[in-house]
Design goal:
The two termini are about 30 Å apart. This protein has four helices and no strands. The chain is an all-alpha fold. α1 crosses α2 and α2 crosses α4.
Length: about 150
């Protein structure tokens, strides 16, 4: 550990996973790409999937005819009755998007995203231990703690 040293310079003896992640550009690219694709898929699903956006679920008498993904449930809401309102724009967007491809994208990218989150935890633990070791060495070199 030293000041000004990059967190990306990981010795293989410290962590094989982090060493592979930071020293192999293909692995780093794939992990970052699929991590971002997962969150893009979640964003798209927020506009199209009744499973993630309960306001898109059908309710009442209209439930039978509006059971398709992306069908809005409160089209005649009195609160958002203005045709140019944000709610009206949201309904238009929800009606145009099918949730099939965002679900496929989320399903394909989720294992890699979970792996990236595991790597984040490994990095947090290893970095914390590394900083603690450096702090102990610096204190010992300075003669701390001093006896009274």
């Amino acid at each position: 550990m030293g000041s000004g040293q990059s967190h990306k310079k990981i010795d293989q003896s410290r962590s094989r996973l982090l060493h592979l992640y930071y020293n192999n550009k293909t692995v780093l690219f794939i992990f970052c790409l699929f991590n971002e694709l997962f969150f893009i898929a979640l964003y798209l699903l927020s506009f199209s999937s009744p499973m993630l956006s309960p306001s898109l679920l059908p309710s009442g008498d209209k439930a039978a005819g509006m059971a398709q993904p992306g069908s809005p449930s409160h089209a005649s809401s009195l609160i958002f009755a203005t045709p140019g309102s944000a709610w009206a724009m949201e309904l238009a967007r929800a009606n145009k998007m099918n949730s099939f491809w965002p679900w496929v994208l989320a399903g394909i990218s989720s294992p890699v995203m979970l792996g990236k989150q595991v790597l984040n935890v490994v990095q947090l633990v290893k970095a914390s231990k590394w900083l603690a070791e450096g702090d102990i060495k610096a204190r010992q070199a300075a003669g701390l703690p001093r006896k009274k």
